């Protein structure tokens, strides 16, 4: 029996980055100090985190260790976030365009095959797009399919019973059953939509 090639998440990952980039491009300088649903980040720090994640993904995609890279990129001019994100994205997509998806990569929280790491970060960028949209009131522009995928995947990556109360995910927040998929996703991760 011939082994099946690994799942290829690159097209969906690219869609999640498109959505994030659109949210970033819509920002005005006056919104950078606004709070976000991520307790540790205002909009500026969240942008720095998103750019840092892309740098880390590029490093691990080459087999490197991203442990020495910062969690938040700082020092970007207020009008430079679109360029910073686009540059980091281009490098990440270049690296992962050639990276074997079945090879293990080491993340800060696990060692996974490359395709699983890209899946995980696809969902992270989906959530951070919601964080930006929530912080700025631009929620209508979000792709619901990305949220459905994230909501289906997060129980594997961040089950409620494994959360310590410290870190990026809090206890699940109750929302009405008819809440839209992004509200349900945010609530599952402990954000208060």
Descriptive account of the structure:
The termini are far apart. Helices cover 51% and strands 3% of the residues. The protein has a single domain (10-146), classed as dinb family like domain (Four Helix Bundle (Hemerythrin (Met), subunit A)), CATH 1.20.120.450. With 193 residues, it is mainly alpha-helical. Strands 1-2 form a two-stranded antiparallel ribbon. Strand 1 and strand 2 (111-113) form a beta hairpin. This is TIGR03086 family metal-binding protein. InterPro entries: CHP03086 (IPR017520), DinB/YfiT-like (IPR034660), Maleyloyr_isom (IPR017517), MDMPI_metal-binding (IPR024344). Residues 15-133 form the Mycothiol-dependent maleylpyruvate isomerase metal-binding domain.
Give the domain tally. 1
C-alpha-based Rg, rounded: 16 Å
Structural class: mainly alpha
Kindly report the average pLDDT value.
Answer: 90
Query: Main β-sheet: number of strands, strand sense, barrel status?
Result: 2 strands, antiparallel
Tell me the name of the CATH homologous superfamily: dinb family like domain
- Shape from CA axes? globular
Question: Strand content of the residues, in percent?
Answer: under 5%
- Arrangement of strands in the largest sheet: 1-2
Oligomer: single chain
Sequence of secondary-structure elements: HHHEEHHH
Task: Bin the helical content.
Answer: 40-55%
Assigned CATH class: Mainly Alpha
Number of helices: 6
CATH topology: Four Helix Bundle (Hemerythrin (Met), subunit A)
CATH architecture annotation: Up-down Bundle
CA-to-CA gap between the ends? 48 Å
Number of strands: 2
Q: What ranges have pLDDT less than 50 throughout 5 or more consecutive residues? A: none
Protein name: TIGR03086 family metal-binding protein
Domain Mycothiol-dependent maleylpyruvate isomerase metal-binding: 15-133
Organism: Streptomonospora wellingtoniae
InterPro entries: CHP03086, DinB/YfiT-like, Maleyloyr_isom, MDMPI_metal-binding
